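Render this sequence as a predicted structure.
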Amino acid sequence: MSDRDTEPWYRYFWPWFIIALLGSAVTASLYTVYLAVSTAEPVLTTSDSHSNEP
C-alpha cells in the first residue's frame, strides 16, 4: 500500500484559500455596484454648466 493522504478536500488549506479569494472578489464587486447605484451623479443641463462663469 502507498502512503497517500486520504483526507477530504475540506481539510486542506488551499481550497479554502481559493474560495476566500473568489468570495472576496464577489463581495467587492457587489459593493462597487451598490456604490455606483446609491451615489449617482446628477445630470447637468446646459444652463447649469455655465452658471459659474463671471
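Summary. The mean pLDDT is 85. The radius of gyration is 25 Å.
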